[in-house]
Write a structure and sequence with these properties.
alpha/beta; Oxidized Rhodanese, domain 1; 5 strands; 47% helix; 12% strand; elongated
Length: 136
Amino acid sequence: MDFLLSQNNLWILLIALASGALLAWPSLSRGRATGRVTLADAVQQINRDQGLFIDIRPAEQFKAGHIPQARNITLDTLDAHLGSLSKDKPIVVVDAHGRDGAQAVKELRKHGFERVASLEGGLAAWTEGGYPLKKS
């Protein structure tokens, strides 16, 4: 007990606890603060919880190649489709390169969707990962 109450040891203990918390923080908040999710995490969420990929690219790009089972909902029509989306399941927003999804994530969160994130790297990351594309 004397070890913990010693002034020098108490500071060392506090610094160690603070360091551990700071190291653990990125793992605990992954995908929440940034609104982004890695390819592996996205696939896991969609498969495990029957989530949905929303492709926000224009219809022409969507038809040229998209993630199987993805729905094409462009940013300008997102509000009109809110009623058809489940707030209980994860939603992963897909764009071309992972740059434009943040706006859709922000809009969905504004309407009460909590389990929503943008795919890091977009459809480019999907194809680089060797996952299949569907053409329609």
